[in-house]
TrEMBL record:
Binding-site list for substrate: 112
Short name of one Pfam family: Aldo_ket_red
InterPro entries: AKR (IPR020471), Aldo/ket_reductase_CS (IPR018170), NAD(P)_OxRdtase_dom_sf (IPR036812), NADP_OxRdtase_dom (IPR023210)
Organism, as annotated: Lipomyces starkeyi NRRL Y-11557
Name of protein: NADP-dependent oxidoreductase domain-containing protein
Amino acid sequence: MSSLTLQSTLKLTSGSSIPRIGFGAYLANEEAVYNALNAGYRMIDTAEFYRNEVECGSALSRWLSETGSKREDVYYVTKLWNSHHGYKATAEAIDESLRRANLNYIDLYLIHSPLSSRKLRLETWKAMQDAVKAGKIKSIGVSNYGVPHLQELLEWPQLEIKPSVNQVEVHPWLPRKDIVSFCRENDIVVEAYSPLTRGKRFKEPVIQELCKKYGDKTPAQILIRWSLQQGLVPIPKSNNPERIKANLDVFGFSISDEDMAKLDIKSYAPVAWDPTTSDL
Ligand SMILES: NC(=O)c1ccc[n+]([C@@H]2O[C@H](COP(=O)([O-])OP(=O)(O)OC[C@H]3O[C@@H](n4cnc5c(N)ncnc54)[C@H](OP(=O)(O)O)[C@@H]3O)[C@@H](O)[C@H]2O)c1
């Protein structure tokens, strides 16, 4: 675990590599995305729903031109909103996301949630497979999929490209062991959203204790480090330049097994929404 660095990546079934940590762009402004790239994040996580794909694309292109970096140096993730499930609507939504961000490919495209119907979810996947074949997307995945939703997709006879990623809310108060182990068994990387619990658990005694023990770490750093050590890909969000930087300062220490066990909390407490339990 000590060998983890800001440059570490995980290999996806698509063959691409995903950074071990990303910048969550929900409610983030253009300056925050630009600051995140300057601070060292190499993944931007946005969505149609966040209504900031234009700003994410602008921040990316500004940063690329100012630093002379290449498009391949940054991993761009966006998501299909629920109202656009279905073959035609998905194909159009992909083109719209590309247009808004002024990109010629998306690194990872996710179905934001399973909230539609089996028919629409699978038609959506077909459109995403076709977009990969057309070179518009490098890797495809899902978000907020529970185990039954993942099984539905993996057992679909027309599946040609397996999901590379499932992005779900995961933190010590929502460990989601069922989903995480199912994904691990099926070579699906789990991205952890709301990894900071949106700040709601920062004052928990166990977090405060570990902040002191590891030498004045912030609650956010403890939670991000926990996520990394669980083998997850955390995507913390901040609009504050100092917090954007501090949230990346998580590679110089590691939480002991004994302290990881203290964070093994039997709890099911989402801070965002929870479509993982929705009916098929
Ligand atoms: N797929 C989905 O359905 C889904 C759902 C939710 C989220 N997500 C993704 O996951 C990302 C992260 O989740 P999230 O935005 O819900 O929550 P989060 O990252 O757990 O927490 C963000 C909140 O914590 C604050 N914060 C950040 N760093 C801090 C620090 N060092 N100290 C104190 N406060 C700090 C931020 O405020 P400031 O900005 O003021 O710092 C913000 O209010 C999203 O941006 C989005 O990309 C996906």
